[in-house]
Amino acid sequence: MVRHLLLPCATMCRDRALTGAVLGVAIAMGCAGNGRAPGEVDGNAELFAAEVQPVLARRCAYLGCHGREGMPLTIYAVDFLRLRDPQGQIDFSRPPLDELALSPAELEHNRMALASRAGPEDPNGTLVLRRMLPLDEGGIPHAGVVVFDRGDDPELMTLSRFMGTVHAR
d(Cα 86, Cα 107) in Å, to the nearest integer? Predict the structure, then answer.
């Protein structure tokens, strides 16, 4: 297995328990409903923009990983994949994208893409968190790549805190 902090991708297994601090945070955050319609997700937008997006940009947004269209979890990031025509057409009347910051549409896409990994069967998104860990830390296969070496990594805890704010129905 490749241990690398910058390259993740994806396959899933549901038969191992999330370990260590990630499990503790996931349990502590709970999954209380918020009256949303079935299939809707949310997730704290401020936490995402300030703390989660930088982690995704550093760890997940590379071209060989989630930084390309068509991936199960496509991630936009400055200096990587950008949403050039959010309406599906090139609109030359729109201002060019800020090359130093994501557009609101890109940030919202990333937030909803990650939040959608939580659901009724996995309300705190523990499967997506476990995909980032090595097998000996309770991880599940992730295309032979490990994103975080330990379950108590502060950046993984940030992702776990965000997933705890997602209310999926």
Answer: 12
